[in-house]
Amino acid sequence: MADNSLCRHGLRICSRCIVITDAAKRMSGTINFMCMLRDWGELVSSCMAFRLDDGSTDGTLYPSRKVALRYQLRPCCVFYFRNSPGGVSELDCQIFLNVNRVAYESDRIAWVDPDSPDILISDKSAQHMRRNPM
């Protein structure tokens, strides 16, 4: 999935060196479309599963990560809409995919277990990864 090499800054995930892939573009487009298409009240209690390899989704709104993972055949990350009332950028999606890919590579068995914990990235951490301090 992800490359294990470090960037010139000595990091595996670096917002300064990150390359936006088609997977992140696909994921961003889907999320932003859903934010325009669906009622916010419906989205705030929903999530979608995105495949780690190509950023595609089955398009289903799930009530939780546990339910979303139950219906997936390939490794995926689960995106909660409540974290993006105004949509997301391609950079945000690339960082999210990269973080989830590293987590998957670190612990494949637990990661596909619906009972394993969510990866939560605080807004402050996301701002730091973007090098845009709050």
Please tell me about this protein's structure:
The chain has 134 residues and is mainly alpha-helical. It has one domain (22-129). 40% of the residues lie in helices and 7% in strands. It contains 6 helices and 2 strands. Strands 1-2 form a two-stranded antiparallel ribbon. The N and C termini lie far apart (31 Å). The mean pLDDT is 82.
Topology:
Elements: H1 22-37, H2 40-43, E1 47-51, H3 65-70, E2 76-80, H4 90-106, H5 108-111, H6 123-129
Antiparallel strand pairs: 1-2
Helix pairs in contact: 1-4
Q: Please report which band the strand proportion falls in: under 5%, 5-15%, 15-25%, 25-35%, 35-45% or over 45%.
A: 5-15%
Structural class: mainly alpha
* Count of alpha and pi helical runs: 6
- Element order, helices and strands? HHEHEHHH
List keywords for this structure.
single chain; 134 residues; mainly alpha; two-stranded antiparallel sheet; 6 helices; 2 strands
Brief description of this entry?
This protein has helices spanning 22-37, 40-43, 65-70, 90-106, 108-111, 123-129; strands spanning 47-51, 76-80.
